[in-house]
Amino acid sequence: MNRTKPMRTFAKILVQLSIFVLMTIATWSSQISESKVVLIQPNPISPVQGGTGVGVVLRGGSTSSSTGSSTVGIPPIYLPKLITHTANSFSVDCITYSVYFAPSRYDYQVELTYAQDLWSALLPRYPMCRSTTSATTNLGAYINNIWTKTYMQNLPVPNVTIPPGFGVVGIPSYVVTHFPFTLLYRAFTPYGQLTISALGSLDLTTRPTESSDGGRIQSLGPFFTPLQPWPLGTAVINWGQPGFDSITASLTWSARWQLDGESGYFAPVLRQYNISNFQVEALQAVRVRSGQL
Fold it and tell me: Is the pLDDT at 85 greater than 60, yes or no?
């Protein structure tokens, strides 16, 4: 039996594998040939699908702390109740409601489904009681209370990273920040479906934390338009003049609400992430398309 042929075949496979690994390393090295501040902005979040009472979509972090009776990040649930009257009463049967604050997200989903089924069964047959609909005269304050206690606290902060790490030196690195620049919240209320749409605009700035002659850095942001082809970035630190810099990603959220044929705007909300005393040789901000780095 000739055993040299399988050995030669195995050796050939090893050589081909080694060449592939070397080519992969060379390709990866060519992709990080210069330092950049890269803004990665994903595609807009698609609108929430569904009919009346789809619940609430929360995007971003939340905490388990409480504000009053409501858990931060979990909106209240409105449980309907049918008020019936006797046959000799001049009043008609109508719907009132109570407010329930779920202690956990699991309980929220269970109670929300129960409430949606009740609303769907009662609203086509009975009107709302007058005492419950009179609150619509102060609709702005009602919606602002929901916004402040629930949604505003969950607006995302721009996530800033420096892969492969803050402490790695001697190789080119990237400063990367990304965020969902459109958000859509929907919740069912006794007055109809509340819709809140939020738009985020990113302002990336770099600032030297040491004295300089003023020619080392240019900060020509902000970057408002998403998904622009490179190389349209600014905020350039000149090559060959290393130093310590502060990098700040500021995300401003503008939100609009719609309910019961009315609409309005909330005050802008600012979210920031800061990297202090980051030692760099050179940085250049480059806006890239989604998924490019």
Answer: yes
